[in-house]
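Tip: read the tokens left to right.
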């Protein structure tokens, strides 16, 4: 469940930033931009990455970094909340079960 939540945080961040980038750079109708939006893994292919303008490559790298930052912030907050909840739990000693409570 945690992976799904963090994936949703990252996808939401990327979607918002892609829309802002498309309107800012005026590349909404550009087929190369649309290919990168549809398949961001295309950046892993050197042949495709070489055809992309450098400012677009930097913009996509920045979007990915910002989205990953959000994911790590959410993960850190959840981890701290988990540690606090464990630290604030009352400690109860383990007791030996009574003879009548044991399973036979």
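Filled-in amino acids:
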């Amino acid at each position: 469940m945690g992976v799904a939540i963090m994936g949703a945080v990252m996808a939401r961040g990327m979607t918002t930033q892609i829309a802002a980038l498309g309107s800012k750079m005026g590349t909404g109708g550009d087929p190369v931009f649309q290919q990168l939006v549809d398949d961001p893994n295309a950046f892993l292919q050197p042949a495709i990455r070489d055809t992309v303008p450098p400012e677009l490559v930097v913009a996509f790298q920045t979007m990915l970094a910002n989205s990953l930052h959000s994911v790590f912030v959410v993960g850190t907050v959840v981890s701290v909340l988990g540690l606090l909840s464990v630290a604030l739990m009352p400690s109860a000693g383990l007791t030996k079960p009574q003879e009548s409570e044991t399973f036979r």
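Helices lie at 2-25, 31-38, 46-51, 54-87. The longest helix spans residues 54-87.
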